[in-house]
Amino acid sequence: MQKLDANLFEEIIYDDGEACCVIFSRKSCHVCQSVKPKLEELEEDYEGDFGFYTVDVEEQKELFQRFSLKGVPQVLFFNDGEYVGKMAGEKDIEDYEEKIEEILG
């Protein structure tokens, strides 16, 4: 998963309009560290069709605040430069997969 800063976020999410998800997490969060492997597994399945990115909320506080997020992990979904939903906390891999399929149509 590619790590995003504010500039890359603008470019990939809004300029390119890629169908993707972004996990907002922190290194010290145990739940975040259990969600990431699930997204990495899905990343292999959707390579080329759907993007997977990560934002470290301690390094990118302004991005975290921009979306008024409360706590981590938060997985935000985007398509065509539009915010299309989020999932908070730990979910089953099938929940993420279902959302991705819904976005890809």
TrEMBL record:
Residues 1-105 form the Thioredoxin domain. Gene3D superfamilies: Glutaredoxin (3.40.30.10). It comes from the Bacteria. Signal peptide: none annotated. CDD domains: TRX_family. It holds the Pfam family Thioredoxin. Keywords: Redox-active center. Belongs to the thioredoxin family. This is Thioredoxin family protein. It comes from Peptococcus simiae.
